[in-house]
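Q: I'm writing up a methods section and want to include an example of the input and output format. Could you take the sequence below and give the corresponding predicted structure tokens, formatted cleanly so I can copy it straight into the document?
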Amino acid sequence: MSFSFAFALDEQGEAGLAPEEPAVQPVAGATACASPSTSGAAAGTGRSWTLDELMDTLPSRISYSALSVPLDAAAPGGSPRAVPIFRRDLFDARFQVLTSSTEHDDDDDDDDVEEGTPRRQGAAAAAAAAQEEQTHVGAASDLLPGVYEGGLKTWECSLDLVAALDSLDRARTEAAGEAWSWLRGCRVLELGCGTAVPSAFLLQRLFSLSDAPPQQQHEARQAEAKATLLHLCDFNAQVLQLVTLPNLLLAWYFSPASLSYRQTSGSAFESADLVASSGDIAVSGALRAAFVASLAQQHIELRFDSGDWSALRLEQRYDVVLSSETIYAPRSLATLCETLQRACRATPAPQEARLCERLRHTSLATGEAFDSPSASAPHALPAASPTTCLVAAKILYFGVGGGVRAFEAELRRRRGWSEVLRETQAGVGRVVLGVGWA
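A: Here is the clean output for your methods example:
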């Protein structure tokens, strides 16, 4: 059987990031401005994936490169900072697509099954559907509306989320001790995860946590009693298989949690700083088992979903919700905002939260400090911890129609609020928004 694959590697995307503006290619039969929540399958469809199911799709080797993500200075005028995040190479993911597609062709050439039988017809239909998805995911275009939404590439706004999370941690660490200790026991959701750079960053931080100091051991045990959840969602199941899980695996591999495995496998190194910026690792059965064991030891649960956002089952609210580059298509905004609202606990608007915090310490009427036993604060924040919801996006997506202004308008329509937490003006302007519903 002849085979045709739309392969044309994007050199800029391979070297670092995808282009600032996605190249959108129309697809026959697809809506011109299809949203991520309605692309690739009928609206309302979705599927949950177990870690074991996705692990079964891993190749025998993964080629990787380190991405240096710039962080904000720790103090005004301070030195530039950066963190390395290891991710699977795009060419390696596409090669796996190519290999898988040729295997489907070989299966189609099986002459043991009689033409026209239900088994043969079903196999042919399944192979055709699989090859269609593989061809779209492996295509040179950044976006194929209605089919594939660019999840194989790393988009720059996902790096902005990493910087914003780092700043959030520094602010919380000043008030609560060990860096990233607040992350233990949290429920984290990343919508439109793609290469999952923010989640990989958080997972590496979790695997790098030291034992809690004595004064924090009780709190740590309480947090560890409930697992830390990382819930990753992308419309295309192949994106979860090809880049999302491999990048989480690399986050573990280049963390202290994998040291025991690396020592026994002969690939020990003292820290990720001493690792070559590119290379490959063998995905053996022992490596998979060590990865799963580390997750269990650290009480970390990984959950995956593909398909329509409207079909996403959210059993509980989340502590941290992340999304980047998901507001470019106007028709996706209603579904995105509805999903974000379902995922978030009530969170006071920034102005209200700051006022409540001020009223905790000082009475505006009398000037009396509320440290006094006889005093009580007139306002209280919600009993449940509010959700930290961060949405990173470009100010405007030229030629597509979406952008921050349209997203904020949809938020207001749903009685939500937003606040600019981080802004980048170089090139196409980008922001990280804090989002919530009171």
